[in-house]
Design a protein that fits this description.
The protein has two domains: about 5-25 and about 130-270, Rossmann fold (3-Layer(aba) Sandwich); about 25-125, no CATH class. It has eleven helices and six strands. It has helices spanning about 25-45, 50-65, 75-85, 100-105, 110-125, 135-140, 155-165, 180, 190-195, 215-225, 265-270; strands spanning about 10-15, 145-150, 175, 210, 230, 255-260. Helix 7 (about 155-165) links the parallel strand 2 (about 145-150) and strand 3 (about 175). Helix 3 (about 75-85) crosses helix 4 and helix 5 (about 110-125) runs parallel beside helix 7. The radius of gyration is 20 Å and the shape is elongated.
Length: about 280
């Protein structure tokens, strides 16, 4: 397996979450959203689940337009607040106008949003299978290096809960999620936060390796942050996640290595590490 860097210099490895550690199928994702929507609609007596789901798509797309180009993560709590307000008769603004979120918050209680977020988290953990073999991969790498998760995700508690369900917590030094940071990969800010979380803020350049399936967020982002990067060519065709199937940005830094299955990272990193 060809690499363009000194593997022994790598002291920490981070992994993207969705479609890197955890494949997410379109069908499973739709089911998670539908079940969570049903929980919220029933609990808060919001009426029509199908209308709620249709509004979900509109508000997700609105947030994609408003936040992602600015390097911000979508706010899942804000999305639920707007959806609840819509279900109670508040008209959404035109596509090119921002919501009056102060008015939304007068109509929707914080406890209601908290319930919706918990429902989403719980349905996600129940509905997305823990992939076989990933725990062993993390354990093998954690035996000699620090390991972390570095993910773009709109709800950090969902990843935390999934990690606990999967039994991966003992192998991880850090879990860094864009929703908690306020910035998304490829923004260098989230990589700096990860360095601090790993206890590697003073580590030499090139001593942290990031593994991910998105050549723009994961590969170019890591390389521009002074990290090494491995591009996982995900076989998860039809994934609903935003980075799925995206190609490299022209002129952007390329990966230091490429793999076609997550387990290949263990072989790539095999060998003595430099202390």
């Amino acid at each position: 397996m060809r690499t363009t860097f000194d593997v022994a210099a790598i002291r920490a490895v981070t992994f993207d979450f969705g479609d890197t550690l955890v494949p997410v199928s379109a069908a499973a994702f739709r089911a998670v959203v539908a079940e969570a929507a049903g929980d919220v609609v029933r609990r808060l007596d919001l009426g029509d689940r199908e209308a709620f789901l249709a509004a979900w798509v509109e508000e997700r797309d609105r947030q994609m337009r408003e936040d992602v180009p600015q390097g911000r993560e979508m706010d899942m709590g804000r999305r639920f607040a707007r959806l609840i307000a819509r279900s109670r008769g508040m008209a959404p603004p035109p596509a090119d106008i921002r919501w009056d979120d102060a008015a939304v918050d007068r109509l929707v209680g914080q406890a209601e949003v908290a319930y919706a977020l918990d429902a989403y988290r719980d349905r996600w953990v129940e509905g997305i299978p823990v992939p076989a073999g990933v725990g062993g991969i993390l354990a093998a790498i954690a035996a000699t290096r620090r390991v972390g998760i570095l993910s773009n995700w709109p709800h950090a508690a969902t990843i935390e809960a999934f990690v606990d369900q999967a039994g991966w917590r003992p192998y991880l030094t850090a879990i860094v999620v864009s929703a908690a940071v306020g910035a998304i990969k490829p923004d260098a800010r989230i990589f700096r936060v990860a360095e601090r979380a790993l206890g590697m803020e003073d580590a030499p350049a090139g001593s942290i390796l990031h593994v991910g399936d998105d050549p723009r967020a994961d590969v170019a982002g890591a390389r521009r942050a002074g990290w090494r990067a491995v591009w996982l060519h995900s076989a998860n065709a039809g994934s609903p996640l935003p980075g799925a199937g995206i190609g490299p940005e022209p002129g952007a830094p390329g990966p230091d290595a490429e793999i076609h299955a997550l387990g290949e990272i263990v072989a790539l990193l095999a060998g003595a590490r430099r202390d």
